[in-house]
Specification:
Layout: H1 5-17, H2 20-27, H3 31-45, E1 50-51, E2 57-58, H4 60-84, E3 91-97, H5 99-103, H6 106-117, E4 119-125, H7 131-136, E5 142-145, E6 154-168, H8 170-176, H9 183-188, E7 191-193, H10 200-209, E8 218-220, H11 224-232, E9 238-241, H12 242-251, E10 255-256, E11 263-272, H13 277-293
Parallel strand pairs: 3-4, 3-5, 7-8
Antiparallel strand pairs: 1-2, 5-11, 6-9, 6-10, 6-11
Helix pairs in contact: 1-2, 1-3, 2-3, 6-13
Family: Belongs to the LysR transcriptional regulatory family.
Organism: Undibacterium arcticum
InterPro entries: ArgP, LTTR, LysR_HTH_N, LysR_subst-bd, WH-like_DNA-bd_sf, WH_DNA-bd_sf
Length: about 300
Amino acid sequence: MKLDSKQCEAVLAVLDGGSFEQAAARLHLTSSAVSQRVRALEQVLGSVLVVRGRPCRATHAGQRLLQYLRRAQLLEQDLQAEFAGEHAQPLSIALAVNADSLASWFLPALAQFLLREQVLLDLTVDDQDHTYMLLEAGLALGCISTEAHPMRGCVAEPLGVMRYRCMASPEFRKRWFARGMTRTAARRAPVVVFNRKDKLQADFLLQHLGLPADAYPCHYIPASEPYMQAICLGLGWGMLPEVQMRELQASGALADLMPDRPTDVGLYWHRWKVQSPRLERMSATLIQAARQVLA
């Protein structure tokens, strides 16, 4: 069985754009023509590939196809670049990254490689416990995740441990935890949470103080720099990675509420076993840099 390139192109356009109308505009076709191509490929494969909704999304079979098409597209672009030499177009690579890595070590680790190899990043930022799903869904070609086990056809390489500490401003500690971080005080003290996927603070409180979720007030601030700024301004306490806040702690702007109870989060780089040469080199660069920075 040989896949029809135009039908595959239509499926990609629908899933990238989220609708048949967007796909039609991108491919300079009518919505009906795009729908016919998608339906024809579904008939050939014997599976529904796209859930028709707003937005359109891939079925499980569609995710498998999307994984293949993304990799095939990248391999083709990489091959074209080899023949084009210095006139090659930049190569765009879709990756899924956790916010704390992106805010600290990720870009410095890859900057020289991206410039040298003419690679463009197409990043999706999500919680480290959820980036794996983006790789599984075919929306990324590599991801940083807490998941240690690779899915079929992939490799998971350990990057190291990101150590988090329970931090607050000195003024906040004096106001709320003058007698230490007790269960009673933690019930009343505001917590800064990244978003509703972020379980670091909830897990810490449950493990060390036996406090269940929703037993304490929370701010939700879903951006790394504003999140850290909120803690420095005394709005609440939160878990911060050592690699991101060492200078602030050294300057006295942040205080460790429980210095003997850090939280270690192991990170893994997931990639396909068969990948383009540039993605292979990027993976090696990323792994080497991460192991120098992370515990």
